[in-house]
Amino acid sequence: MVLTSVVVLAALAVCTVAVHGPVSRIARHYVGELLTEAVTGSGQPVDPIVPGAVRRHHLLLSAPQTVLFLVVGGLACTVALVAGQWYEAALALPVVAALTVAGSTDAVCHRLPNVLLGLAAVGAGVGIAAAVGLALAAGGESARVLAPVVGSLGAAAALGGVGLLLSLVPSGLGMGDVKLLALVGLWLGRFGWAVPVVGAVLGLFLAGTVAIVLMAVRRARRDTMIAMGPYLIVGALTVWALAVV
């Protein structure tokens, strides 16, 4: 138990350093370039998202992002350790780190940076490889060995495809959300097809509920843009925890 806790804490420390340094820096650079491109030569914003992004830009500073990741990553570690599956925490932390900053970026500017989604996808790929390695070490049959790969790729294709269809109608989903849905399938598909599907549905439900509440208190209108990424990420993290437990 001591050794496994040390491994998990080491992974948490490495990911915390990454979030505090290069990962949060990527987000700030992305938003900075976006703000620069979204302003005309006269200095007036041409994108309605710009004023809000300027007000919330400070949320991407290293300190707030580090604290946010420590809270989310710490909860993930606690869940996995209590469930006796320490390796799930070690595998999930890189994905959680990238998604935490990606969700914050989406909340600031309504965009999900491809580079952060790519980092999360690499972490998900490592998880799939680890699942295959464990199956091979256990002497599993070929069907059992390939199950995590098939499940993840199938879920990524299915959720990505459904997200793409929804993005073609007035659903509030953008291409960044489509990529995020595919990523959720890739990350959680090895637990079974139901896990990523429930995570996606939960995320959409949370986003819809918040939108209804905001409209009820007159803080938003039907045409107000709402960042979907944070809610999809919360849904994915919730079902991951339930799958681990």
Detail the topology: elements first, then pairings.
Elements: H1 2-37, H2 50-56, H3 62-82, H4 86-109, H5 114-137, H6 142-167, H7 175-188, H8 194-216, H9 229-244
Helix pairs in contact: 1-3, 1-4, 3-4, 4-5, 4-9, 5-6, 5-7, 6-7, 7-8, 7-9, 8-9
Structure description:
The chain is mostly helical and 245 residues long. It has one domain (2-244). The protein is 78% helix and 0% strand. The chain has nine helices and no strands. It has helices at 2-37, 50-56, 62-82, 86-109, 114-137, 142-167, 175-188, 194-216, 229-244. The model has no long low-confidence stretch (mean pLDDT 90).
Helix content: over 70%
Stretches where pLDDT falls below 50 for ≥5 residues?
Answer: none
Class of secondary structure makeup:
mainly alpha
Number of strands: 0
Number of helical regions:
9
Task: Kindly list the characteristics that best describe this protein.
mainly alpha; 0% strand; 245 residues
